[in-house]
Every structure is written in structure tokens, then in C-alpha cells.
Amino acid sequence: MTEPVDLRVLENACAILGRENSPLDAYMPIFDDLNTIVIKSSADESFRKRLAGDRALWKAVGQCFSAINDVDLRNCVAPDLHLRLLRGIVLLSRNFGAERQDIPQELLLQNKLTRWLAKQQKSYKAMEIALFSVSYEFFYNISKSSVLFDKSSLDELCDILVYPATVPSKNRDTLLLPMLCFMSHLVQNDDFLYYFLKHPCATNILSSLLIEDIVKSHIEVPVVQGEKGALTSISALEAVQVEIWSSILTHESFGVYLKDQRLNNWENFCTILSLSQLIITSREKWDKTQLTVIMSWVYEVFVSAAEELRLFFEGDAQDEILAQKIHRILTISLDIISVLSKFEHVREFILYYGGLKTLVDLLSCLQKNCIRINITRDKLGVKRIRSTNAAGEPVKDNDKKASRIDFETGTIKATNFPECKSMVIEILAYLCYGNEEIQNRCRELHALELVLSNCILDDNDPFIKERSIMCIRFLLEGNQKNQEFVAKLEAKRAIKDDVLSEAGFDIEIDESGKIGLKQSSKVNT
Q1: In 20-125, where does DSSP find H-type helix?
Q2: What integer pLDDT is reported at residue 505 of this predicted model?
Q3: In a shared domain, residues 54 and 166
Q4: For the segment 325-341, what is each residue's pLDDT rounded down to a tens digit?
Q5: Domain count, the chain
Q6: Measured between alpha carbons, how far is 312 from 306 in angstroms, rounded to an integer?
Q7: Is residue 524 part of a domain?
Q8: pTM of the prediction?
Q9: How far apart are CA 48 and CA 79, in angstroms?
Q10: Are 35 and 134 part of one and the same domain?
Q11: Coil vs helix vs strand at 372
Q12: Residues 132 and 194 placed together within one structural domain of the fold
């Protein structure tokens, strides 16, 4: 049971909190008594556990929160003292909330405190910031077991979640971690995420408090430069941010939110995709439900980008700004899909939604329209740039070369869509591995010829030769028809001599003179 003196302290505090004209000399005795209880609740575990289970104490806390809801801080005689007293009550609640979550949830204490915090005009003074910080800690503690969410309180909840973003940056650090810890619990509630992602404040909260910090720290190089940011060494704050974003991007409402951002805030859409790419490609384990949700939005982004690329090349293919937009979205979506293609569930998803043909059509479009580029460098920089078309013939159109290559810097422009073919071929390799039906379908879609023609070095697509050879190996293994098809191409000298041997196959001519392939005894790995 709560000692009478403890309840009396809370009752006296309630009387002061409920009045805007409480005399100054009324606060100090309460501060002394309350401070004693707060310190004891922090240091004495048995005391903390005993009082945390006392409903009467929690009801007294609830009465304090109800009382202050009738108060406008602007009208208080001593607003700072009022905030200080409320902070003491919240500190006590935070300590007890670490032991018991059910009673404060039943009494709706989070809603009562949130309501008052949301409706007050913000001053951003030290005591107000300290109150918000400890309030987040209290909310975090009482939501450990489960999250209590009421749709009617969403506006007030968003108001306190966005508060750190409105605070001057020098004071933001003390708020960010406790707020995000609380939010990490909130996003585990499906209803909260569903309504939150539709709320007008959602983008401000996500951009200011989640996206910008991680992106600035870990996404400092373009995707096509090879070495992407990786979540290998992150702070406690970043770990919470990543946890929150992982929950968001695997929620069924995320796709709708992403569409809205694409229509109304292109830069934010791209930044969100980059962050999602970073998180997805840095994590090894996803369950089937999570994979389904991720693929539902990333596949849609990919298909849209592939169609935009087709239309780009049907036009004059000169708009570099448009090419940069398409290239950015295409490389991000392809990278996510290629990383997730190691999961059987993802491969089944791609095949079910006709992704094989979309991938082959994209590869064909890239093969037809992109030029191959080989850049020779020495210690002084770029020494020689050689460009060829799909047939291996030198590109003689100087305007076309200038639109695809920056000859001053030796860099490849987005108009030539660097690295895209390489990632498409990597995904195809995953799809056809050990799957005869898909191997046959690839032959029917002329993917075999496309992949074979990319078994060469090309600076536009790093590692494309290695990935193509691996894909050819998977297309030929255990598939007699594909082996016969490739053997005929070899007989016509349509394949470079070393490609098949590197893929692990040798040409074989039987007694009747029929040309075929056999698995080499020395397979490159």
C-alpha cells in the first residue's frame, strides 16, 4: 500500500497544478517532498516495485494530469514552477512505469499528458524541453508490453512527436533519443502506422527526425559508385532510427505513402528510397510477410522506372536531368531486388507478377540503346576512351558519345544508365538457378543471346562479365535444350572462345558430327 505521506504529496501537487494563480510559496514544500520520493524511487528497487503496483498512486498521478489540463500555462503566475512541478510528477511516473505498464495504460495516463503537452503554446525554454524529454521516457516505459493507440488522439500524438523538429538544433539532442525510443514502440502498432502515414505531419516527422540523420551519415556516395553506405557501425540513436524505419517500410501502408511522396515531393521520395535501400541491403533476415510488403512497393517502383526508360529511348534520349531521375530510381529498385532475390519467396513473387519478361525486355532495351565504354587510365588520369555499340562496332556519332560520356572527367553520364544491365543479369541468374522452366523461358525470350553478348569488360557496367558468365552457367546447367542452342551459336562463332570455358562448359562433337556442350571437369568458381 502507498504510504499516506506519498499520496498526500501527490494530492498537494494536484491542488497546485490545477490552479493558474497558485502562490509562489506553495511550490517549495512540494518540491522538497516530491524530490525525496523521486530519488527513493530511482535508488530503492523494492520501494519502486511496491509503489508501482499501487493503483491509488497511479490514480493520484492521473488526477494531477487531469488537473493541469484545465490550465493554460500562459495565464500562470509562475509558469516555470508549474512546469517544474509537473516534470517531477512525470519523473516519478517514469520510474514506476519501468515496473508496471498495465495500470497507467488502463488509466489512459499517456493520453491525458499528451493532450496537455499538445495544446500548450511552446516556448522552447529549458524546463519545457526537460519536461518533454522525461515525458517521452515515461511514454516509452509504459508502452514496453503493448502500445495503447486511440485514433482520436493522433493529432495530439503527432504534435508531441514533431516537437523535437521544432526545437532549436542546439537543444535537440536531449530530446531525439527518448522521442525516437517511444516512437520505436508506436510503430509496432499497425493501426498507429496506418493512420500516421496519412497524417499531414508524417513527412515532417520522418524527414526531420529519421531520414536526414541516417542519410547524412551513411549515404554519401551515389549508388553507381560501387561502395554504398553500410550500416556496419552505427550509434545508439541511429540503431533506433533504423529500427523505426524497418517497421515503416515493411508496413502495408508504406506503398501508398511512397506514391504520395512521388507525386508531391520528388526529392523526399528519392531520399526515402535511398534510405530504404540502405536498410534493406544491410540486413540479412526478413520474414515472408516483410518480403511481400517490400516487394509490393519496390517492384512497382521498378516497373514504372523500366517503362520510363523505354519511353526515354523512344524520344531523343538527350534530357540528362530526366535520365538522372530515371537512373536513380532504376538503380535503387534493381539493387534492392537483386539483394532480396536470394530469398525463394522473392523469386516466386517476381515470377508470379511477370517479372521475368519485364527484366528481359529491360535488358534488351539497355542493350540496344546503351553504348559500351572502356576507359584506360594512367597516373595522369584518363588516357583513352573507347566506345562501341551492341554489335561491337566503334561509335562514330560524336554527338551521341558526348551525350553519354563526360570526356573531361572520364565519367559516364546517367544517359547511358551505368550499372543497370549488370544488376538485371544478376537477378536473372538468381531466377534461373536450378529452375529448368525459367531456363527454358529465358531461351524463348532470347535472354540467352543477350546475356552471352555481355560476357565482356564494360566500364559502363562493372562486373557485368563475371555476372554474365555466372548467369550462363546457371542457364546451361542440367538443361539440354539450352546447351544445344548455345552450341549452335558457338559453331557459328557467335560466342567468344573463353566464355563457355569460364562458365564451366566445353564444346563436344559426337560421332555423328552433332555439336553439343559438356560440363567441364574444371569449373571456375
Answers
A1: 27-43, 45-52, 55-68, 79-97, 102-106, 109-119
A2: 62
A3: no
A4: 999 999 999 999 999 99
A5: 3
A6: 10
A7: no
A8: 0.87
A9: 30
A10: yes
A11: strand
A12: no
